[in-house]
Design goal:
Shape: globular
Number of strands: 18
Oligomer: single chain
Structural class: alpha/beta
Number of helices: 13
Strand content: 15-25%
Amino acid sequence: MDLDAFDELLTPRGQRALAEAVELGGTDPVAAATRLRRTYDAALTSAALTQAGLRERARAKFGEDAARMYFTPHGLEQSTRTEVAEHRARHLTEPRPYAPPPADAPPADVPPHRPDAPPHGPDAPPHGQGAPPHGPDAPPHGPDAPPHGLGLTDAPLQGLRVVDACCGIGGDFLALARAGCAVAAVDTDPLTVAVARANADALGLGDRVTVSVGDAAEVRPEEYDVLFADPARRTSRGRTFDPMAYSPPWPVVLDLLSRASRACVKVAPGIPYEFIPEGAEAEWVSYKGEVKEAALWTGQEGAGRRATLLPGGHTLTATGAEATVGPAGRYVYEPDGAAIRAHLVGEVSEIVNGRLLDPMIAYITGDDPIDTPWATRYEIEDILPFSGKRLRAALRERQVGNVTIKKRGSAVDIERLRSDLRLNGEKSATIILTRILDKPSVIICDTSPPA
């Protein structure tokens, strides 16, 4: 879908084509295209069917709003889930006084290696390296952008003035606008900008959002209350985990952060810790047990590491707790991925009165059945040295025919193991492949559902 086709999609005729395409959802694609081609040209037919398919896929992220929104495939993939965007918007709009660190404060809270810590990139450049110069004579924000401030400097609207430096299709600025912010958004791609504008209008937020074609490097965050940035993490080769390959690249992001009074930058959950700016708070967000993303916050009270669980809103921060290592107890706890990414395994271990089975693996064992949103609990039936033959015999003895396999610190191929087990019993079980004191082991857990 190109810009001309999308513009036509917004016309009355295009809206009729889109409505018909939505009604044909779930039917044979060839039959749907053939039916639409009786009334519409090939370009509009393709745009309508593509948009209808993207709206259906977007329901998982945007809920009922998806039926009124517009998307590009890449924009939908990178866009933030509504619940996460709303969480960030609340975090930004709630009063949070800024407390600058004392002059003798140590560097940012970067802990030593912890169980299952993400790898640290060896070649991270100094902060700000390679960032373009800025000043009063910097170029304007794209070909159709208004003067400095992107049209919001004198906006009559109340609330924070936010600049969204890499807005994509608008998933984040929609939440910010709904929270009462006035948002100036930019993106380098004209089609993406058109889609973002259409989304603001479709959801009745056009009076709070200005979207322009522009380069994030040309944004002047010092003219706003808050900078928000979601750098693209995909190259022509696919998804990238290297912040230097983000768009804009990390030095540009750091330069924007250095000039913003407050900021939030969305990053990949596996960001190496050495890329986290000094004084920033790093937050990892998990939604229904799956780690979705991380965000770096600057210009506010607090620094260090935080994990958040959605939709419940539970938050865990670093306290310096260190987990001990000890023998297996009655239960094994699997910490939520956000807590693991935030290096808060020690804090979770303290919550469940537990200890690590291995000093480098994020499985916690304990003697008490503690209920917590920060870990899933399984009751241990047996622990064996890993052997496919021995494991198969143990599961067959228990009449297990369906097995959930988890692993951490194990090189075993799960699907191959599942095939090799050849189980046919009536019961279900969870098995955990891991290392215990550096020995490959398997934990067989109670066949009843985990807590």
